[in-house]
Amino acid sequence: MLVSEQAHAKINLALHITGRRADGYHELDSIVAFAGVADVVTIAPAESESLNTTGPFAGDLPRDGTNSVLSAWRLLDGFSRQRGAALTPVKFNLEKNLPVASGVGGGSADAAAALRGLVRLFDLSISGQDLNELALQLGADVPVCLLQKSSRMTGIGEIVEPIALELPEGIVLVNPRIPASTPKVFESLNLQCGQSHGAAIGNVYDIESWRNDLTAPAVALVPEIADVVGSLIFQPDTVCSRMSGSGATCFGLFASLENAQIAAAAIAEKHPHWWVVATTLL
Ligand code: C5P
User: Fold this and answer.
1) What's the CATH number where 35 sits?
2) How far apart are CA 3 and CA 130, in angstroms?
3) Does 29 qualify as catalytic in the annotation?
4) What single-letter DSSP state applies at residue 209?
5) 183 C-alpha vs ligand 1 centroid, how far in Å?
6) What Å distances lie between residue 55 and 69, 154, 212, CA to CA?
7) pLDDT score recorded for residue 63
8) pLDDT digit string (tens) for 14-68?
9) Last residue of a domain, one of 132, 162, 192
């Protein structure tokens, strides 16, 4: 038996930082959607636990043996052991199609896909709440990636409410192939623990009114992000463009996939070293 799960790119269409908690984590109010481009996590039973990586960005993964897919396996194994049944070993293949440390979920989406895949492979009976709590231990935006549906995400990411949004069909994702460290970007906001920051999302249907409060600190660390947003804003048919997560990936929304493809081709021609993808929102 072999199971395969798609780990779709997570796009923060809005990312309002509303404050910083006493434990150092930041409180946020975010609208998240998922795009048609994805990593692929494949899992099969094996003699011993292993991870093979393939795909265009496999070479950018950390070489220290840590990987969110293996962390997900260990966490679920520990949870199962506490209930008297350890998981048997598996071999993972991670097809890394999304740039690493790029603000589109990547490691979080992979961890969530591993959790979904392991539950299917072992036919585990685990409540949605338990799975969500395990997901949160793997990272603040793993719960939303577990669900993989358009959602409003609050708290530090653990409160996920699906939301029906009427969004433009096409999206272009652009990354300058420079990693942006999530902890460093958050730290550069310079908020004290207990300090409040920007306003929460006022209108969940008014995309123009949304912001990404991590844009300024991310641009300070990776100045190329300003050029990436600029390249999207100046396309003739862009409905809206913004940075996703802690960057450096930025997105532009377009009325149709065809419009998105035209814009992507123009950006890729001008910046052949950038990662540029036209796709649809799920
Ligand atoms: O939870 P995750 O591992 O994805 O987050 C990476 C880092 O980003 C955290 O260790 C923390 O420094 C920062 N972060 C934060 N507030 C959040 C999410 C992440 O400060 N809500």
Assistant:
1) 3.30.230.10
2) 22
3) no
4) G
5) 6
6) 15, 33, 29
7) 76
8) 999 999 999 999 999 999 999 999 999 999 999 999 999 999 999 999 877 789 9
9) 162
User: Ligand 1 mean position to 17 CA, how many Å?
Assistant: 12
197: domain CATH number is: 3.30.70.890
What is the pTM assigned to this prediction? 0.96
Closest CA to 260 of 167, 185, 190: 167
Give, using CA atoms, the residue closest to atom 18 of ligand 1.
140
Beta bridge partners of 45: 90
- Tell me the mean pLDDT in the region 166-179: 97
CA of 140 to the centre of ligand 1 (A): 6
255 has a pLDDT exceeding 90: yes
**Catalytic residue selected from 29, 39, 77, 141:** 141
User: What is the structure's pLDDT at 194?
Assistant: 97
Query: Is residue 229 helix, strand or coil?
Result: helix
The position carrying tokens 């913004």 is 242
Mean of pLDDT over the chain: 96
In a shared domain, residues 7 and 78: yes
Using the Cα atoms of residue 233, residue 234, residue 235 and residue 236 in order, give the sign of their dihedral: positive
Name the residue type at position 67. Answer: N
The answer to whether 210 touches 12, Cβ cutoff 8 Å, is no
64 is catalytic: no
Catalytic position from the list 10, 29, 39, 213: 10
* pLDDT at residue 10 in the model: 98
Q: Give the binding-site residues of ligand 1, using a 6 Å CB cut-off.
A: 25-26, 28, 108, 139-141, 156-157, 182-183, 186
Give 6's strand partners: 40
Which residues on neighbouring strands pair with residue 25, listed in sequence order? none
- The yes-or-no verdict on residue 260 having pLDDT over 90 is yes
